[in-house]
Automatic annotation (TrEMBL):
InterPro entries cross-referenced by the UniProt entry: Acyl_CoA_acyltransferase, GNAT_dom, N-acetyltransferase
GO molecular function, one term: acyltransferase activity, transferring groups other than amino-acyl groups
Coiled-coil regions listed in the entry: none
Protein name per Swiss-Prot or TrEMBL: RimJ/RimL family protein N-acetyltransferase
Domain N-acetyltransferase: 40-176
Keyword Transferase tagged: yes
Keywords tagged on the record: Transferase
Taxonomic superkingdom: Bacteria
Organism per entry: Mucilaginibacter lappiensis
């Protein structure tokens, strides 16, 4: 099983079969990965986005792009100290013609303000820029989501667009 790790976290990209399991019963999927069952507190807005992504993006795209599923799935964020899922990340697909990828994330409300989202994002940035084709990473967040905006600053992202209070941040590939 492929995963990436940081000091406190392990990020596991779910296969199509694991997504099917999570859709049927999250606890069954967690146990199949040898994880302790989670009891995540998820904001209803993000719950809706996750449900929509599952049905309209992750499941169909991981089936269609089985070899490149890492770009089309949910990456579960596991807190190593408790062996439980505390959030998720994902991409909007493979790099586009400009070499850009978009990522998004969600952290369990029980684990906010502990630096886990920043740590996970820094790990995914390192992994993404390990792919030569990727020239930039974008993230969209709402203008009133101050913790997310602060995290963009910490991770070196620059604000590039503000459309109807939806902010777009971009991080360019570091030059060597």
């Amino acid at each position: 099983m492929f995963f990436i790790e940081s000091e406190r976290l392990r990020l596991i990209p779910l296969t199509h079969e694991q997504l099917q399991l999570i859709q049927a019963d999250r606890q069954t999927m967690e146990l199949s990965l040898g994880l302790n069952p989670s009891a995540m507190l998820i904001d209803p807005l993000y719950k809706h986005e996750i449900d929509d992504a599952m049905i309209n993006f992750w499941l169909p795209k991981t089936l269609e792009h089985a070899e490149q599923y890492l770009w089309y799935t949910s990456w579960e964020i596991i807190l190593k100290s408790t062996n439980t899922i505390i959030g998720g990340m994902g991409f909007g697909g493979e790099p586009n013609e400009k070499g850009e990828v978009e990522t998004g994330y969600m952290i369990d409300g029980n684990h906010h303000n502990k630096g886990y989202a920043t740590e996970a994002l820094k790990s995914i940035i390192q992994w993404v820029f390990g792919h030569e084709k990727v020239q930039a990473i974008t993230v969209r967040t709402y203008a009133d989501n101050l913790p997310s905006r602060k995290m963009m600053d910490k991770c070196g992202f620059a604000l590039v667009d503000d459309t109807d209070r939806l902010l777009t941040y971009r991080l360019k590939r570091p030059t060597s």
